[in-house]
Amino acid sequence: MAFSMYTTIPISNVKWDEKNFPYIIVSLPFVGFIIGLIWFLTASIFTILSIPHSIKTIIICLIPLFLSGCIHIDGYMDTCDAIFSRASLEKKYKILKDSHVGAFAVIGILILAFLAYFSIYEILEFEKNLVSLIFIPIFSRGVTSLFIIKTNATSKEGFIASFKRNLDNNHFFIILLILIVFFTLGYFLGVAKIIIIDIIACIIFARFCIKNLNGISGDLCGFIITTGSITAIVFLAIL
Questions:
Q1: I need a labelling partner for 20 at 20 to 30 A (CA). Which of 120, 169, 210, 237 fits?
Q2: What are the sequence ranges of the domains in the chain?
Q3: Contacts of 11 (CB under 8 A, 6+ apart)
């Protein structure tokens, strides 16, 4: 159910059962792991191909977008429009539901595109540790899933509200244990700094969103995942 909903990876014979909705959230780190693994393997292959760096960079930037079906970018853009409108809380909620693209969404996606392109270019140019690409999607989704459990939904409708009905501290600690296991693996692979930066960025942006919109929603989750990931990528290029 999690892979069918949050990736474009073909999944057959998916049985949708509301009883299993909480485990979609628990499964998000594993969704991130598969996306990250494909991202890492593809990037590694492209590093040995004799094609221009600019082409390699564009393709590597697009891989996680294609694998996620751009669902998180959509949430990121909607959230940019809502938060930076500086409107009332009620107006912000209306903007989140509005299918039109506003000026702040355009500005946000341009900033994201520039940061992603130049960061990935630098990562390839200076041969940074591409193993980080496996872990960035894991922790951006994992930390976001923890906030889903602990934060009130902005609406009683929608998938987040449906998922939250049966989520409890047991699910929280399961996710936390999964992230600890992945962090331990990342530590031995030499990417602990990037993981920590990813975690901190997700926490900061999550608190920023929750403060501005008084809760969490699917769009806000997309914003947190996207901003946490791009922050980690930028620091991977810098460090």
A1: 210
A2: 42-238
A3: 3, 4
In the chain, where does DSSP find H-type helix? 2-6, 21-26, 28-47, 53-68, 71-83, 89-97, 103-125, 132-150, 159-164, 169-188, 192-213, 218-238
- Encoding tokens for residue 51? 């094609």
Task: Locate 122 and state its tokens.
Answer: 């630098």
First to last CA, the chain: 37
- SS3 of 69, please? coil
Using the predicted structure, report yes or no on whether residue 161 has a pLDDT greater than 80. Answer: no
pTM score, whole prediction: 0.92
What distance in Å separates the CA atoms of residue 60 and residue 180, rounded to the nearest whole number?
27
Specify whether the CB–CB gap between 59 and 120 falls below 8 A: no
Q: Is the pLDDT of residue 168 over 90?
A: no
Query: What would the mean pLDDT of 22-40 be, rounded to a whole number?
Result: 93
CA distances from 107 to 64, 74, 95 (A): 21, 14, 16
| Single-letter amino acid code for the residue at 4 | S
CA distance 45 to 77: 31
The Cβ of residue 45 has, within 10 Å, a number of other Cβ atoms equal to: 10
Residues near 185 by Cβ (< 8 Å), separated by ≥ 6? none
pLDDT at 51 over 90: no
What's the mean pLDDT in 167-186? 94
* CA-based nearest residue to 209, from 232, 196, 227: 227
**Residue found by looking up tokens 């079906």 in the block:** 69
Asked if residue 47 lies in contact with residue 196, where contact means CB atoms within 8 angstroms, the answer is no
Q: For the chain, state the CA radius of gyration.
A: 17
